[in-house]
Amino acid sequence: MSSEGAGAYKISKLAMNAMTRMTAAEARGDIKIFAVDPGWVSSDMGGPSAPRTTNRAAELILQLATMESEGPLVGFFRDGKPIDW
């Protein structure tokens, strides 16, 4: 990514992570709240050189969406694994 617009991109990710935490804090019951980093995806934004297909990115998101009920209720994930925020 060029430096043009990088600040706005970083702010948007900060807001998404904060929203994930706030939503999870307010959720009631067995509701899973996740933020997913799909990686560098070949798309209009990622460009044709990105190594990950949109199908692979969707598979990673679907993996979390269909996680068994005993899994975590909140978190940040990359490649199907929890990451720190």
Describe the structure using short key phrases.
85 residues, alpha+beta, 3-stranded mixed β-sheet, 2 helices, 39% helix
Residue stretches low in confidence (pLDDT < 50, at least 5 long) are none
Helicity, as a percent range = 25-40%
Beta-sheet strand percentage?
A: 15-25%
In round numbers, the mean pLDDT is 87
**H-E order:** HEHEE
Main sheet properties: 3 strands, mixed
Strand order of the largest sheet: 1-2-3
Structural class assignment: alpha+beta
Q: Count the beta strands.
A: 3
* N- to C-terminal distance: 21 Å
* Alpha carbon gyration radius: 14 Å
Q: Count of DSSP helices?
A: 2
**Rough outline:** flat
Count structural domains.
1
Describe the structure.
With 85 residues, the protein is of the alpha+beta class. It has one domain. 39% of the residues lie in helices and 15% in strands. It contains two helices and three strands; from the N terminus they run H-E-H-E-E. The protein has helices spanning 6-26, 54-65, and strands at residues 33-37, 74-78, 81-83. A three-stranded mixed sheet has the order 1-2-3, sandwiched between helices. Strand 2 and strand 3 (81-83) form a beta hairpin. The longest helix has 21 residues, at 6-26. It is flat and about 40 Å long. The two termini are 21 Å apart. The model has no long low-confidence stretch (mean pLDDT 87).
